Amino acid sequence: MSHGDGDHERFAHYVQKDKIMASALDGTPVVALCGKVWVPGRDPKKYPVCPMCKEIYESMGPGGDKGKDKGGKDSGKK
Fold first, then answer.
1. Which residue from 1, 12, 15, 43 has the fewest beta carbons nearer than 10 Å?
2. pLDDT at 26 exceeding the cut of 80
3. 3-class state of residue 64 by DSSP
4. So what's the pLDDT on residue 42?
């Protein structure tokens, strides 16, 4: 699990959409599909998608993505 170090910082990550909203309201950290933990704060559209998050998301298949949304990405960059 990463806490804001290494390659995870260079990517946008997949996170449950409701967790992104909660974090925006109260500042609690979120956990990406790949295990990265951070408080979102940057525009995820400016970064490539984390390959590990993408692989996990795609392996979930139809119906396995409840609460997941490609719009629910965040880069974690500060």
1. 1
2. yes
3. coil
4. 86
> Token digits for 40?
């979102």
Q: Cα–Cα distances in Å, from 56 out to 24, 50, 61, 74?
A: 24, 10, 9, 16
What confidence tier does 12 reach under pLDDT thresholds 50, 70, 90? Answer: very high
Taking the alpha carbons at both ends of the chain, their separation in whole angstroms is 18
Q: What is the pLDDT of residues 36-74, one digit of tens each?
A: 999 988 889 999 999 999 999 999 977 654 444 444 555
Upper half-sphere CA count for residue 31 (Cβ side, 13 Å): 2
Which amino acid appears at position 34 of this protein?
A: C
Query: Which of 21-30 are b and which e, b meaning 16 or more Cβ less than 10 Å from the residue's Cβ?
Result: eebeeeeeeb
Place of tokens 């699990």: 1
> Where is 38: in which H helix or E strand?
strand 37-38
